[in-house]
Design a protein that fits this description.
There is one protein chain. The chain has one domain: HIT-like (HIT family, subunit A), CATH 3.30.428.10. The protein is about 20% helix and about 20% strand. The chain contains two helices and five strands; from the N terminus they run αβββαββ. Strands 1-2-3-5-4 form a five-stranded antiparallel beta sheet, covered by helices on one side. Strand 2 and strand 3 form a beta hairpin. The protein starts with 8 loop residues before the first helix and ends in a 9-residue tail after the last strand. It binds adenosine monophosphate. The site of adenosine monophosphate has 12 residues, from loops.
């Protein structure tokens, strides 16, 4: 049984209670288009299990991180931007500018992204 939270917006998307443009889902993760895209392609890959963010990941959750990398790999090939590249990044806490307290990685592609981030 996967642990989810009643009021968490990403838990509600995972459960299908809030509509999203889902591009990928398996038993570990769900991926959908970000509502406010910061690049031509901006997809969020979220854990199906409620975890607060990177800091909330415990040893038994390690497979979820692998599944997120695999999902990014598959989505990039499926949507045709694997060859040009992409960025996969997770924000944590105040200094990371995290706004939703549910583990998610941003998958950004479709233009040359600046580095370092602002
Ligand atoms: P972060 O600031 O790293 O926590 O990222 C949260 C992301 O979730 C932001 O890029 C938001 O645009 C996005 N977001 C918030 N609500 C939704 C939603 N209902 N559907 C899709 N993306 C969302």
């Amino acid at each position: 049984m996967i642990s989810t939270m009643t009021d968490c917006i990403f838990c509600r998307i995972v459960r299908g209670e809030i509509p999203s443009q889902t591009v990928y889902q398996n038993e570990w993760v769900t991926a959908f288009h970000d509502i406010a895209p910061k690049a031509p392609v901006h997809i969020l890959i979220v854990s199906n299990k409620h975890l607060s963010g990177p800091l909330g990941v415990e040893e038994t959750d390690a497979p979820i991180i692998g599944e997120i990398a695999l999902a990014a790999n598959r989505i990039a090939r499926q949507l045709g931007f694997a060859a040009n590249g992409f960025r996969l990044v997770a924000n944590e806490g105040h200094d990371g500018s995290q706004s939703v307290a549910h583990l998610h990685f941003h998958l950004l592609a479709g233009r040359r992204l600046g580095w370092p981030p602002g």
